[in-house]
Each structure stands twice: as C-alpha cells, then as structure tokens.
Specification:
The strands form two sheets. This protein has a five-stranded parallel β-sheet with strand order 5-6-4-7-8. About 50% of the residues lie in helices and about 10% in strands.
C-alpha cells in the first residue's frame, strides 16, 4: 500500500476500496477497524470482498489474540452482537504475524452468498498502516493514524468495560509523576465518571494552598491522616476516577477504602518518572526537596529511595499498567513515546481482565 493512501482510508467517510491494499508491503502491520451499525458507510458485504486476513487485536496479549480473532470470525459469520448495531471491533493484522502464528483467517469472500444477516447490514472497514517496517518518510501520517486509532480504540474499550464496572470507582495508584492525573482525566471522560485528585481534597480539607505547604506547616503525618480521611469519604461514593497521592499505598487502612472500588497501579520506570518530574520541577512535590544536584538526578535518587521503602505496596492493586509492557506490545523502544491515551487503553484492558476474572471465579463457585 502506498503510504499516502492510508490517510484517505482513515477518513471515516471514505468507503473501503479493496484495490487500495493490493500492494501491501510484506511485513507491515495494519490496524483494521470493523464497524457496523447505523452510522456504517459500506452498503453491502460485497464492498469488502476480497478482503482477507483479520488478526491480532491491538494492545492485547498473545493469549488473547486467537480468542479475539475467533470472536470476530464468529460474529462476522453468524451476526452476533459484536457486529450488531453500533458495535465496533478493532483488530490489527500483519502478513508476517499471520504466517508465523498460523492464526485463523477470515476471508470476506467466504461471506458472500451466505445469509449472514437477516437484513442488509452496513459495515465499514478502515485500514491503516503502523509502518513498523516501512520507510521513515511515513512519520507524519503515522502520528495521524496513531491518534485516530487510539481515540477509537479508547472509546470502544471504555464502552466494553463500563458495564462490568457497575459504577464502581477507579483508584489510580503509583509514584508521583506516574500519570495518575493525566490518565485519570482521560478515563473519567470516557467512562462518564467524575475525576478527583486526593491531594487536592486534602488541601481543601486543611485549608492549604498546596501539599508542600501542609508538609511544611503541619508535617507529613498530618497530611497522611487527612489523606486517609479523604479516602474513607471517597470509598462511600460511586462513579469516580481518583488520582491518589503517591504515598497513599503505604497505609493498609487506605487499601481497605480504595478496595471498595478498583485499584489500578500505573507502573512507570523510575528513569521515566525522573525525566517527567525534572521537566516540570519539584516545587509541588515536597518529598523530592531533600536531594542536591541537577533536577533529573535529584528526582531519580529520591524516587529510588521511595520506591525501595514502598517495596511491593503498589502491587496490591487489582490491576497493573506497566508502561514497559505497553512499549513492548506496541513495538516502541522509548516509553516516553507512549501517549496518555495508549496508557488509558491499557488501563481499561487490565481492569477488564480483573473484572472478568472475578466473574469467572463467581461462575465457577456456583457451577
Ligand atoms: N504518557 C505521558 N508521557 C509524557 N508525559 C506524561 C505522560 N503522562 C503524564 N505526563 C507528564 O508527567 C507529569 C506528571 O503527570 P501527572 O501529574 O499526571 O502525574 P501524577 O501521577 O498525577 O503526579 P502526582 O502524584 O505527583 O500528582 C506531567 O507533567 C504530565 O504532563
Ligand atoms: O509519594 C508521595 O508520598 C507523595 C506524593 C504526592 O502525590 C503527594 O501526596 C505528597 O507529595 C506525597
């Protein structure tokens, strides 16, 4: 496929043209978004013929791949809910990956002539290229595709996860600077939840203008007591995404409160945290004031000490979002290149795994 054509194909109003992908560069990876429903743009299944491979869902683990592929095949062939009104499926496939893993293939020509749906459905196929093995000149359109794909995937994933949440709050835990505020705001918007920052709630309760002021004027223990009290009050509420303070994990009682909802650990390597914090300064983070040296070294030294002190406290969370793992999945070398949206998608995937795991356990208990 020519790089330039990808952009056109990503235009939601653009009808998928089979001839557009005949020159696929072998080894390139694609994301295919299959959408059906009232706003679909392709009139009949014939429009996607002779479309072939559907493989590897975006951002999911190896073991989930085959399941997702099969679910799409199933839904495409018998018209299950997944392709029902308004449903959206996202799949990534690669020619190389298909051969290597010997994954099943959906051939759209198989769909022709079958009475797949009781009445004509509309399906839109959008094809984009992630350019993993393509020339560097693709960078500009790569960004375009990445954000387009991510926004759609985020929307789709949050719609899938929301029913399992049943209004339970999400508590984001992680070291300072791990992105709890940034990712939390994205999640709250997508899920239709409110966003709250427990540090801000403590500031309001104490009547201080900053956490740094509370530490200076009243000491850390006063801050911690107020933090626990705010978490207790939050534990009685619903439909919130809460960015907790970096140290909220050290008191066991806080876990009791946070576990009323779903706890999610944003696990970011210390070097990346130090880089972020050095970029914005340490003024608002009193625990980082004690070291000397340049901003990055100061932050890294203090973060390393805190991380050792806290040991495995963060690992008590129900779901772990490891930026290192996301980077591997997406083939990114530098985790600084991961967008907050990609991290929010991973958070939803991990929340879904946790909640579905719980469901499975409940089913097993009653069967
Ligand atoms: N994925 C990301 N890539 C690059 N920078 C990011 C990313 N996520 C957050 N940041 C930046 O890192 C800094 C810290 O992010 P944020 O405030 O969301 O973290 P936090 O966990 O809420 O921090 P704290 O616990 O100290 O309040 C901000 O400057 C933010 O813009
Ligand atoms: O990691 C920590 O202990 C802290 C993180 C911040 O969010 C604030 O809650 C406070 O600066 C303490």
């Amino acid at each position: 496929m020519e790089i330039g054509k990808c952009k056109d194909l990503m235009d939601p109003s653009h009808r998928f043209k089979p001839e557009s992908y005949t020159a696929d560069p072998v080894g390139s990876e694609y994301i295919v978004i299959v959408r059906s429903g009232m706003d679909g743009v392709i009139q009949t299944l014939d429009d996607i013929e002779p479309f072939t491979v559907f493989l590897r869902p975006f951002l999911d683990t190896e073991s989930m791949d085959a399941k997702c592929v099969l679910s799409l095949q199933f839904s495409a062939c018998v018209g299950s809910e997944r392709l029902g009104t308004g449903a959206t499926g996202f799949l990534q496939f690669s020619q190389r990956g298909r051969k290597e893993r010997n994954l099943p293939i959906l051939n759209s020509s198989d769909l022709r002539g079958r009475s797949v749906w009781s009445q004509p459905r509309r399906i839109a196929l959008y094809l984009s290229c992630s350019y993993k093995n393509s020339p560097a000149s693709a960078v500009e359109s790569e960004n375009f595709h990445a954000s387009f794909d991510e926004d759609l995937i985020l929307k789709n994933k949050s719609q899938e996860v929301a029913p399992y949440l049943s209004g339970r709050c999400i508590y984001l835990v992680g070291m300072m600077g791990s992105g709890k505020t940034t990712v939390g705001k994205i999640l709250s918007k997508e899920l239709g939840y409110s966003f709250l920052d427990s540090d801000k709630l403590v500031e309001q309760a104490v009547g201080a203008t900053s956490v740094a002021q509370i530490f200076k004027q009243y000491g850390e223990s006063c801050f911690r007591d107020n933090e626990s009290e705010e978490l207790r009050k939050l534990s009685l509420r619903h439909r919130l995404v809460v960015a907790t303070g970096g140290g909220a994990v050290i008191r066991p009682i806080n876990w009791k409160y946070m576990k009323q909802g779903i706890t999610v650990w944003l696990d970011v390597p210390l070097e990346a945290l130090a880089k972020r914090i050095a970029a914005v300064g340490t003024d608002s983070r009193p625990l980082l004031h004690q070291e000397s040296g340049d901003a990055y070294t100061k932050a890294l030294m203090r973060l390393s000490m805190l991380s050792e002190e806290r040991g495995e406290a963060y690992a008590n969370a129900d779901a772990r979002v490891s930026l290192g793992h996301i980077a591997v999945k997406l083939g990114q070398e530098d985790i600084s290149d991961l967008t907050p949206t990609a991290i929010a998608i991973e958070a939803l995937i991990q929340i879904e795994h946790f909640l579905k795991g719980k469901d499975d356990m409940a089913i097993a208990r009653f069967s």
